Amino acid sequence: MLKGLGQLGDMAGMMKKAQSMQKQMEELQDDLHNLMVTGQSGAGLVTATCSAKGELKGLDIDPSIFNPEEKEVVEDLILAAIKDAQAKASEKAQQEMARITESLGLPKDMKLPF
Fold first, then answer.
1. Which residue, 89, 65, 88, is CA-closest to 75?
2. Phi then psi for 107, rounded to 5 degrees?
3. 73 touches 61 (CB < 8 A)
4. Which of 1, 20, 34, 72 has the smallest CB count inside 10 Å?
């Protein structure tokens, strides 16, 4: 019935691939909540841990930086560590998405809703 359409005629195969992709996307969303990345600033004086979804999960601050006269420096170090962790989280999420799209035979750089 759809012989002249080549690969488009294989609707069952396309549907199966779409269902597989949907399942993998759901699993990835769950995995991104559990994958942790760590960002640092001040040569490790401040360490922030985020999920790969970018949610801040932990913050570790070396007590040696608690000098009341350097409050702004401490604040900057904290923000820098959080931003570093969030950037790494975004990168990790993109890597995981690329892994899934490649496994489905799609172009590695294909942008999908996330």
1. 65
2. -60, 140
3. no
4. 1
Kindly tell me if the per-residue pLDDT of 1 is higher than 70: no
Provide the whole-model pTM: 0.68
Q: Is the dihedral of CA 25, 26, 32, 35 positive or negative?
A: negative
**H or E element that contains 8:** none
Sign of CA dihedral 18, 24, 30, 34: negative
Q: What is the pLDDT of residues 24-49, one digit of tens each?
A: 888 888 888 899 999 999 999 999 99
Q: Which two tokens stand for residue 39?
A: 């960002």
Q: Give the Å distances, CA to CA, from 10 to 13, 21, 39.
A: 5, 17, 46
Please, is 93 exposed, middle or buried when counting C-beta atoms within 10 Å of its C-beta (0-12, 13-18, 19+)? buried
